[in-house]
From TrEMBL:
GO molecular function, one term: phosphorelay sensor kinase activity
Aminoacyl-tRNA synthetase as UniProt keyword: no
Residue ranges annotated for the Histidine kinase domain, each copy included: 266-361
Protein known as: Sensor histidine kinase
Entry keyword set: Kinase, Membrane, Transferase, Transmembrane, Transmembrane helix
Organism of origin: Noviherbaspirillum cavernae
Stretches that traverse the bilayer: 21-39, 51-70, 82-101, 121-139
Single GO cellular component term: membrane
PANTHER family found in the cross-reference section: SENSOR HISTIDINE KINASE YPDA (PTHR34220), SIGNAL TRANSDUCTION HISTIDINE KINASE INTERNAL REGION DOMAIN-CONTAINING PROTEIN (PTHR34220:SF9)
Length: 361
């Protein structure tokens, strides 16, 4: 069976995995030596059993793990070729490991043969433990790596699905704004056509300008504060045509915050709510101010009006409740508990709507 990975990738897998495998096998070799010394009681001291265990186990690892990593990388090896490698590698590792250990210990190899003859059960147990461990470890580790890779793929797929679902939700919430705003504007435009055609023409021109400005950003996931404030300038220009001298406004955006990314169409529901429920029903002149500032790593966006205030009656016109609910739902979907939205009284009259957003994702 041929490998599906190019050779350089297998070499990287070898250098990445082999040190970890050596550390694991060394721990297991120590446990085998302790088992042989104190449970099986081979008659040899711990140092001797440890030398044999380390030499045989380390060689078995090298003879099994290196071919596996070079041939199949970190994937699951095919069963028959892999067990064929084990069947060849284990006896060779046993023979060479005994020779190296006896040389290190300075004892004749015949002594090891005699000791094995005196306690065949212990040595058979030793060999079986080493062989079974190597077979079990490398075969199951390949399966575990495959399962881990499948789990990682499934996790990535789930995350992608969740991201797509959130984006779909945000887009659904976002597009709710435009029908609401267009419904109100077109209703006013319809009335002006019969009563004041020049003013209706001017309002239509302002509406076209606003729609051109908002067409791109209303479909984007992110915009900048500079673009958001430009949209609000166009929107308030449109509202000024409708309300005439009764509406004045000002926008304050520090230059340092102009390029800060924000969700698009986030301010419009607040501005529209201030005009619809606070300034339009009020017979006197009104003012609306939009300000951006940064405090303690948080972006604070404020929409303050001098309208009727929080105690003003709320209209039951369709779409009335969409704006503020839209803001809350979008903030929850985008930032969770890290963002806040509050409505507080303005002095002497009106409402202050305040958004507090993290400046980092």
């Amino acid at each position: 069976m041929t490998s599906s990975l190019p050779a350089p990738l297998h070499m990287r897998a070898l250098f990445r995995r082999l040190p970890t495998d050596l550390a694991i096998v060394t721990v297991f070799n120590v446990l085998i030596a302790v088992t042989l010394t104190y449970l099986v009681r081979t008659g040899s001291p711990l140092s001797v059993n440890l030398a044999y265990s380390l030499c045989i186990g380390t060689l078995a690892l090298l003879f099994c793990d290196v071919p596996r990593l070079l041939l199949w990388g970190e994937g699951k090896p095919p069963r028959l070729p892999f067990f064929l490698i084990l069947a060849i590698a284990n006896p060779i590792a046993w023979y060479l490991g005994v020779g190296i250990a006896t040389h290190i210990l300075g004892i004749p190899r015949e002594n090891f043969t005699l000791a094995r003859a005196r306690n065949p059960t212990g040595f058979l147990t030793f060999f079986a433990l080493v062989s079974l461990f190597i077979c079990w470890y490398f075969w199951n580790r390949g399966k575990l790596q495959l399962l881990a890779a499948e789990a990682a793929t499934e996790k990535a797929r789930t995350a992608a699905i969740e991201k797509q679902a959130m984006q779909a939700q945000l887009q659904m919430l976002q597009v709710q704004i435009e029908p609401h705003m267009l419904f109100n504007t077109l209703a006013n435009l319809r009335g002006l056509i019969a009563l004041d055609p020049p003013r209706a023409q001017h309002m239509l021109d302002q509406l076209i300008q606003y729609l051109r400005a908002t067409l791109t950003s209303s479909r984007a996931e992110k915009t900048t504060l500079d673009q958001e404030f430009a949209l609000m300038e166009a929107y308030l220009g449109l509202m000024s045509v409708r309300m005439g001298a009764r509406l004045s406004h000002d926008l304050q955006l520090p230059d340092a915050l102009r390029d800060l990314p924000v969700p698009p169409m986030l301010l419009q529901p607040l501005v529209e709510n201030a005009i619809k429920h606070g300034l339009e029903p009020k017979m006197d002149d009104g003012h609306i101010g939009i300000r951006a500032e940064q405090q303690d790593g948080m972006l604070i966006l404020t929409v303050a009006d001098t309208g009727l205030g929080l105690d003003a009656p709320v209209s039951d016109t369709p779409g009335t409740h969409v704006g503020l609910a839209n803001v809350r739902e979008r903030l929850q979907a985008l930032y969770g508990e890290r963002a806040t939205f509050t409505l507080t009284p303005n002095a002497p009259t009106g409402v202050i709507a305040r958004l507090t957003l993290p400046t980092r994702p």
